[in-house]
């Protein structure tokens, strides 16, 4: 039996070192918190001390000549049984070795499972990890979020309860979401463009932004729609404009768009609805760039529906990112129950989240989110 002591800042780091040096067959005999002496009693560091062991030469079945051979872990149990028939005097020894081989196999399978895509956690942490998985948080991010909780579990002598570990996880997500919602808005925003595929609610979202700007902030607002591919979209925006008493122009081509901008040159804000065509076509993005000719102070938002598949949302954002999108608006909050995809996408793209929409009512069902609100959504806290 080879026994060795390891010291590391966290339990996951210690486990990584143990597996690297002793292999997957290693067993943790003991673990405890250990603090360094520091300087004059100050600057003490908290480490994890782990005692691990591995048996490089497991118990081996003896032969008639007294030789000792290395056991084969793939050895068939029925082959061992045949040995018993020829050597009844070693019945007890062989049976014991069979049990030992069985235990070794089970241990190996357990270690293989623990190192697979789904990590096993101690009981108080398992519920936390399970909830994150159910909310749609990717395995990679679950593992990263659980590392500080694992360290706390081992360094606190397993005294904390599930609520304490939830707070550790939530704190990390809140830090991410705080960064996601912090955005330094351009000083002289004149035109705001909304992009996105069909069916994500761009036109309704634009109406909500128009209502907020004109009613709540007292801005002089005008609307332009480039979505001439759908007659319903044009009529919908005209209806909103009439209710809000705002001017609206339809641009069928580049000349129309230039004239509309000149017509509204004295407005405080121009909100522009774009066509929701197939974003997967490179031609569409190229046409948009040529058609619009963006200026430095333009704001570009991509509208993404939370009811879409995460991979589709990823593809959409990646495609529209070529337009130098400023921020993201997530829609249809009220039509889904799981929001882990928000964390997955943000950690990949590091975009800014401008608004959330949660219904069809104009102008009520839109809001700028807080970091705490985003965290509560992601971890499934609906209170």
Automatic annotation (TrEMBL):
Coiled-coil zones: none
Family to which the UniProt record says this protein belongs: Belongs to the GTP-binding SRP family.
UniProt protein name: Flagellar biosynthesis protein FlhF
Keyword Cell membrane: yes
Annotated InterPro entries: AAA+_ATPase, FlhF, FlhF__GTPase_dom, P-loop_NTPase, SRP54_GTPase_dom
KW Protease (keyword) present: no
Localization: Cell membrane
Domain SRP54-type proteins GTP-binding as annotated: residue spans: 189-380
Membrane topology, from the record: Peripheral membrane protein
Transmembrane segments: none
Domain (AAA+ ATPase): residue spans on this chain: 188-335
Protein purpose: Necessary for flagellar biosynthesis. May be involved in translocation of the flagellum.
Assigned keywords, A-Z: Bacterial flagellum biogenesis, Bacterial flagellum protein export, Cell membrane, Cell projection, Cilium, Flagellum, GTP-binding, Membrane, Nucleotide-binding, Protein transport, Transport
């Amino acid at each position: 039996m080879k026994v060795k002591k390891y010291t590391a800042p966290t339990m996951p780091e210690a486990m990584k070192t143990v597996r690297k040096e002793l292999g997957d067959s290693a067993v943790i005999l003991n673990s405890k918190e250990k603090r360094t002496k520091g300087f004059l009693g100050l600057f003490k560091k908290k480490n994890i001390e782990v005692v691990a062991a591995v048996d490089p030469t497991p118990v081996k079945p003896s032969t008639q000549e007294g030789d000792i051979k290395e056991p084969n872990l793939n050895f068939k149990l029925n082959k061992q049984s045949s040995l018993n028939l020829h050597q009844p005097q070693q019945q007890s020894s062989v049976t014991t070795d069979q049990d030992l081989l069985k235990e070794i196999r089970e241990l190996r399978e357990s270690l293989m499972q623990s190192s697979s895509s789904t990590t096993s956690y101690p009981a108080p942490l398992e519920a936390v990890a399970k909830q994150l998985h159910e909310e749609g948080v990717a395995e990679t991010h679950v593992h990263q979020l659980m590392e500080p909780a694992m360290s706390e579990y081992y360094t606190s002598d397993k005294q904390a309860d599930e609520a304490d570990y939830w707070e550790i996880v939530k704190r990390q997500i809140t830090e991410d979401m705080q960064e996601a919602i912090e955005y330094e808005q351009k000083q002289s925003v004149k035109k705001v463009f909304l992009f996105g595929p069909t069916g994500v609610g761009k036109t309704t979202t634009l109406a909500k932004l128009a209502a907020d700007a004109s009613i709540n902030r007292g801005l002089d607002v005008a609307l332009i729609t480039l979505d001439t591919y759908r007659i319903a979209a044009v009529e919908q925006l005209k209806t909103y404009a009439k209710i809000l008493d705002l001017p609206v122009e339809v641009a069928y081509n580049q000349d129309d768009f230039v004239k509309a901008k000149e017509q509204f040159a004295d407005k405080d804000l121009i909100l522009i609805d774009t066509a929701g065509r197939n974003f997967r076509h490179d031609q569409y993005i190229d046409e948009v760039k040529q058609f619009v000719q963006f200026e430095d102070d333009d704001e570009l938002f991509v509208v993404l529906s939370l009811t879409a598949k995460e991979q589709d949302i990823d593809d959409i954002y990646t495609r529209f990112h070529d337009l130098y999108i400023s921020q993201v608006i997530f829609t249809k909050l009220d039509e889904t129950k799981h929001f882990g995809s928000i964390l997955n996408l943000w950690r990949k793209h590091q975009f800014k989240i401008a608004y959330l929409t949660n219904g069809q009512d104009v102008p009520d069902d839109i809001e700028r989110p807080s970091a705490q609100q985003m965290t509560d959504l992601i971890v499934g806290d609906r209170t």
